Amino acid sequence: MKILLVDDHRLIRDAIQSYMEDDPEYEVVGEASHGQEAIKFLGENEVDVVLMDINMPIMDGLQCTKEVIRRWPQIKVLTLSMMSDNQHIKQMIGAGASGYVLKNCSEKELKKAIRTVYEGDTYYSSEVTEVVMNNLMRNKPTKTSHMVVDMPLTEREKEVLELIIKEFSNQEIADKLFISPRTVDAHKRNLLEKTGSKNIAGLVMYAINNQLFEDL
Predict the structure, then answer these.
(1) Which fold has domain 140-209?
(2) Which of 147, 178, 194, 202 meets the CB 3.0–4.6 Å disulfide criterion with 209?
(3) Matching CATH topology for 2-124 and 140-209?
(4) pLDDT at position 206, please?
(5) Does this model's pTM top 0.85?
(6) pLDDT band at 94 (very low <50, low <70, confident <90, very high)
(7) Quick one: CATH architecture of 2-124?
(8) 3-state SS string over 52-96?
């Protein structure tokens, strides 16, 4: 996997580089200290995953992520930040980031997150998931105000949705439901289309608004 590090702190970039240098699976092919440098590098080099900080000079991680997804939709962006508030998380997910982990994560978790987004899944650290879920629960509507389901979900789609919310990967969902990962992808696309959601966070909100599962 070819990785680009985008962070304005050299110490952070050096630390991540040291994590990866002994593992042939993970190759850091470049570094950038702000968004404009990242965009320039991506225009000239092949990259699979971008590790993206948020607060940077000249062009921040939010604007850079939007530009990366617009120009190179095949590239996966994984947010790596100290920011753990709902606003930053929501903004980065909305910009197209495939995952969000905090800078205090372990080397093992960081590598797992990189591999997960590289394979086409989403990854959020447990702290990030907790922030998002707590925010959703605080804004949970009453039974009389929940959204009407215009396009009813099939039982299989509900099964897939429940496993997505529980943070199962595509392969784990496929194994549990005895279907192929490609079929899981198809169900995900249908769920996004039917619910009008743009990302996984939107699917979680949809499930809560429509009270689809008792434990939400």
Answers:
(1) Arc Repressor Mutant, subunit A (1.10.10)
(2) 147
(3) no
(4) 78
(5) no
(6) confident
(7) 3-Layer(aba) Sandwich (3.40)
(8) ECCCCCCCCHHHHHHHHHHHCCCCEEEEEECCCCHHHHHHHHHHC
